[in-house]
Design goal:
This protein is α+β, with helices and mostly antiparallel strands and about 600 residues long. It has helices at about 5-15, 120-130, 140-145, 190-205, 210-215, 230-240, 280-295, 305-325, 330-335, 355-370, 370-380, 395-405, 415-435, 455-470, 475-490, 515, 560, 565-585; strands spanning about 45, 55-60, 65-70, 75, 85-90, 95-105, 105-110, 110-115, 160, 175, 190, 255, 275. Strands 2, 3, 6, 7 and 8 form a five-stranded antiparallel sheet that branches. Strands 10-9-13-12-11 form a five-stranded mixed sheet. Strands 1-5-4 form a three-stranded antiparallel sheet, with no helix packed on it. Helix 6 (about 230-240) packs across helix 7 (about 280-295) and helix 14 (about 455-470) runs parallel beside helix 18 (about 565-585). It is globular, with a radius of gyration of 23 Å. The model is unreliable at about 1-25 and about 585-590 (pLDDT under 50).
């Protein structure tokens, strides 16, 4: 998500054309969730061309029998493009089976299922995608299937960059920062993106612990009694802990090459690796993640002896470093002016740390009960609340405070009512815009949704809506979250399911070095690509001017077709939350765990 167009283009010239695609599948004329629908939750399809009349049918397959009829909505528009839509809503039909939508004058939709656990494959694949992103680890055929590969980037002797040098760790000295996840389509590892990604997986477990105990993604070295989602999160957590300087508690911003690797496999990438300057954002990300992990790992002392205590100690040490360095931004451009070892990989520059302070304080407060953390959190309570992203993490602390209200000291627990109102103010706005949305989803209600990584906007909106549902039990929030997942899985202007390997039309050429270079026709499954991006920063010809169509299934389209861990993490949360909650909806036991 960070590479330059000219660099990517040069790579393609050197390496050659993209690998052969599987048999091409045409784009649908009726847009819907290609993975399917839950019986008791909302279901709809979208068209963008004229129909003959106002009706539609639901056809049972393979019998071809009409089992439901309905009326199309009136024409809708986004307000920012010329595309108009009509919606075929069949939420009233709840019988499990295999179906298609037929609309006279338009055609037939892809075949889909209505069933309990209809997104189970998605839920497992999106989590397993993190395993495929592991650095410093060979992927065995027994676990990785045809995407098995040799280990790359051992990162056991990473160089200290001049920007990171201290008395105890001089320039050119070496440290061990092995492990962790590759950040995106490239092979570098960034603390701020690891922060929100790991925290989102940990939060999914905290919200649905009993569900995740039964979810098996087939991961190596899984410990008895430890859910696979924690096994995977801990793989990256251990790397994050290594990125802390034990002498002062500060945290390096990233482990990186000086420039991006070519489009090659990890084992072929042997350029020197560096850790670069410490920063406030990176350090507070470790505070938050380590504090959250500490309270979770207390329940697994036999499987991870001492790790909960180590995480807590690391969080406190990092907090104390941040107190002494409260506003130290990572400025890569300035850094490169003072060093001959110039770094051109992703900067993830963030100059506003109030949200990191709020999040870190919340997690430490829940885990330790310390009054100093309450004071730090409360001091920032009037800050603006935004949807989470790598550069805005404040609301993650809100989710945790609401979720863990029973872990707070009694004198502090009343603050959660304020936090709930802040979350609901956003969720209620989403309900209003989603009902009128051209695609029957909250996503795409505003032009500003179509940014770099727009699909993560959709998934983080859904995470917020699910959190609102969990503490209100208002099913409207759950259905709105489902609508955004439907968008991701095909009910969008492009007609793509944006998750590799899921649906009848999904990306074949993501901007992802491993999927490009591994010699396997199909990309690694379960990866969420960035999605429509009106900025089109890669400079390619998109063939459409509408923001919602600004997507290319092209390996060179890093602006719309790259993958990233912070995009996949909310997909893991949403897909698994819905798998859990739809069952509770069907049997009436939908109280928050």
């Amino acid at each position: 998500m960070k590479s330059l167009f000219y660099v990517a283009l040069l790579m393609l010239i050197i390496i050659g054309l993209p690998k052969a695609q599987a048999q091409k599948v045409g784009l649908p004329v009726i847009f819907l969730d290609q993975s399917g629908f839950y019986p008791g939750l909302n279901k709809s399809a979208v068209i963008t061309k004229d129909a003959k009349g106002d009706g539609f049918e639901l056809i049972a397959m393979p019998a071809g029998k009409s089992v439901f009829t309905g009326s199309l909505s009136g024409w809708r528009s986004t307000g920012y493009s010329g595309i108009k839509t009509r919606i075929a809503d069949f939420s009233g039909f709840q019988k499990s089976g295999t179906y298609l939508v037929r609309i006279p004058g338009v055609g037939d939709s892809p075949v889909f299922k209505i069933a309990d656990s209809v997104h189970q494959d998605l839920a497992l694949a999106s989590l397993k995608a993190f395993y495929y992103q592991r650095a410093s680890s060979a992927l065995d055929k027994d676990y990785a299937g045809k995407w098995y590969r040799a280990s790359g980037h051992p990162d056991t002797a990473v160089l200290i960059h001049p920007s990171a040098a201290t008395k105890n760790r001089a320039t050119g000295s070496r440290i061990n920062v092995t492990g962790g996840w590759y950040d995106a389509g490239d092979y570098n590892k960034y603390m701020v993106n690891s922060g929100i990604s790991t925290a989102t997986l940990l939060s999914a477990y905290e919200d649905f612990p009993n569900y995740f105990l039964g979810l098996k993604a087939k991961l190596p070295n899984a410990k008895n009694g430890v859910p696979d989602i924690l096994t995977e999160a801990i793989y990256n957590l251990r790397w994050m802990l290594k990125m802390q300087d034990p002498y002062d508690g500060g945290v390096y911003n990233k482990c990186t090459n000086l420039g991006f690797d070519a489009m090659i496999m990890p084992a072929q990438a042997t350029a020197p690796r560096y850790v670069v300057a410490k920063g406030t954002a990176a350090t507070l990300n470790l505070v938050a993640v380590a504090a959250q992990a500490s309270r979770i790992l207390k329940d697994f002392p036999r499987q991870y002896p001492g790790l909960a205590d180590s995480c807590r100690a690391a969080a406190v040490l990092a907090w104390n470093w941040a107190l002494k360095n409260p506003n130290l931004a990572y400025d890569q451009e300035l850094m490169n002016k003072t060093s001959d070892l110039k770094v051109t990989t992703g900067a993830y520059g963030d100059k506003d740390f109030e949200d990191e302070w709020s999040w870190a304080a919340a997690e430490l407060l829940i885990t330790t009960g310390g009054s100093e953390y309450y004071d730090a959190f409360f001091a920032r309570l009037n800050a603006k609340v935004n949807l989470p992203s790598w550069s805005y993490v404040g609301i993650l602390g809100y989710y945790s405070m609401i979720r863990c209200h029973d872990k707070l000291p009694e004198s502090y627990s009343s603050i959660t009512s304020i936090l709930k109102k802040k979350v609901l103010s956003i969720a209620d706005r989403y309900l209003l815009t989603g009902k009128a949305g051209a695609y029957g989803a909250v996503m795409g209600s505003a032009l500003s949704d179509f940014v770099w990584g727009s699909n993560s906007v959709a998934m983080n909106q859904a995470v917020l809506l699910i959190n609102a549902y969990l503490f209100t039990q208002n099913k409207d929030y759950l259905n709105a979250a489902v609508g955004n997942l439907d968008y991701i899985l095909g009910r969008n202007a492009t007609g793509y399911s944006f998750v590799t390997g899921i649906g009848t039309k999904s990306p074949m050429n993501p901007h992802h070095r491993i999927s490009f270079a591994d010699g396997v026709i199909n990309p690694i499954p379960g990866m969420l690509v960035g999605g429509p991006n009106s900025g089109k920063q890669d400079g390619l010809k998109y063939g459409a001017v509408e923001p919602e169509l600004s997507y290319l299934d092209d390996v060179a389209s890093y602006a719309s077709n790259e993958i990233a861990i912070n995009w996949n993490a909310p997909l893991v949360y949403v897909a698994n939350a819905l798998e859990c909650l739809q069952t509770k909806e069907s049997d009436g036991s939908n109280n928050r765990q």
